[in-house]
């Protein structure tokens, strides 16, 4: 991935407050480098939403960041609301057509 594309990715990844708080709390723990990055959690949530996953199992959880990201998608979908529209999961903003 180019530096320009990675910068774009970081600028357009939304992170819900609860995930931000968990990430910040985990940063002070021993082994904090095992935590996934916000853009990785957003990608997992996107995959769960796109595939319509209703049950998810994650093996090897540290503090649960990615599990929570995926669970937020499930909670939004269970209420009949697409998670991306409510801003509950860390989806990427759609790039303008001109930038593709």
From TrEMBL:
Protein name per UniProt: Caffeoyl-CoA O-methyltransferase
Family of this protein: Belongs to the class I-like SAM-binding methyltransferase superfamily. Cation-dependent O-methyltransferase family.
GO biological process: methylation
Keyword Phosphoprotein: no
The keyword Membrane is annotated on this UniProt entry: no
Keywords assigned by UniProt, alphabetized: Methyltransferase, S-adenosyl-L-methionine, Transferase
Gene Ontology MF annotations: O-methyltransferase activity; S-adenosylmethionine-dependent methyltransferase activity
Natural source organism: Monoraphidium neglectum
PROSITE patterns in alphabetical order: SAM_OMT_I
PANTHER family with a match to the protein in the record: CAFFEOYL-COA O-METHYLTRANSFERASE 3-RELATED, O-METHYLTRANSFERASE-RELATED
Gene3D superfamilies reported in the protein's UniProt record: Vaccinia Virus protein VP39
InterPro entries: Cation-dep_OMT (IPR050362), SAM-dependent_MTases_sf (IPR029063), SAM_O-MeTrfase (IPR002935)
Signal sequence bounds: none
